[in-house]
Amino acid sequence: MYERDEREPSFAITKKLADFFEVDTDYLLGRTDKPTNKTVDLAKDPLDEKVDELLKDPETQVFFKDYLSAPEEKKAEMRRFMKFLIEEEEKRKTIKN
Fold this sequence. Notes:
Layout: H1 11-21, H2 25-28, H3 47-56, H4 58-63, H5 72-96
Helix pairs in contact: 3-5
C-alpha cells in the first residue's frame, strides 16, 4: 500500500527502513538524492564478526549460497540482511528473558 500511495509509513517504520538499508530518512522521503551522509565502516561493525561466522556455517551457506559469487553491492546487501536477522534474534531473546 506504501508503493501505491494508499498509506504512509509511520515515523518508526521509516526509521527502521532507513536503518535496515543504511540510508538517511531524507533519502527515503525523497528529500535528497544522496542515500547517506555518514560513512559506513564495515570493519568496525561488531556484527561483522558474527556475520563472518555465519557465512562459515554450512547450514547458513545453503541459505546464502550465492554470496561468494555475488557482486560486491549484492554482498553488502546480503550482509545488511544478515545483521538485521541477528539484531532481531537478539531482541527476541531479550524480550523472552
